[in-house]
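Risk register update: the risk of archive-format incompatibility is retired. Evidence:
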Amino acid sequence: MAVDRYVVVGNPIAHSKSPLIHAAFAAQTGQNISYDRLLAPLDGFASAVEDFRDGGGKGLNVTVPFKQEAWQFCNRLSERARLAEAVNTIQFPDGEIFGDNTDGVGLCRDIGHNLQHPLKSKRILLLGAGGAARGVILPLLAEHPASLTIANRTASKAQQLAEQFHAYGAISASSYAALAGQSFDVVINATSASLSDALPPLPEGCFAAASLAYDMMYGKGLTPFLLFAQQQGATHLSDGL
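Archived output:
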């Protein structure tokens, strides 16, 4: 039986557990696949994907820092990927390059279903304005939170996203410094800081009572963001695994 080849592409990529996860999916659903990691040069995403496709690859997942570049690379997009301007899943049907984004639906299902933490009427803080953040904004707003605030080191990028998605719900932008004195029920780290054991410059006091801290990245044990959240009184901690 022919083996269908898939990869997850990123830089860095050694940390990714996607091969382990997809091997489990394949075993559960009776699919004959191989699924590997692909380290692409920071300036070589498109050529790496083209080489993989030319070699018979069926599809791939995309992680940091290529999700926005993947959106530009695709010639057909799902509606959610088009609106997010970020892609984490690529297929090659009938010669096309089809991009989708499952980050948001996966995040909301994990928080609402697996963690039993409804997002409706909650004050949500989303850290970061890159590809990971873009992919989750619309699904988060679809949960009807009380508010969604995007904070980023470059506040203008957060403001751009808030303006882009303002028609879909209560969304605003902030610098990290301007968060001082505010508190949130759910704080989601969509930056890649945890991959380098760094912490976004989040001021103290941002975690409300019984708040959830969620890091979209994952590492060995608690990430620096989750450790900080725990010290700040967050009572629910989860990572992107």
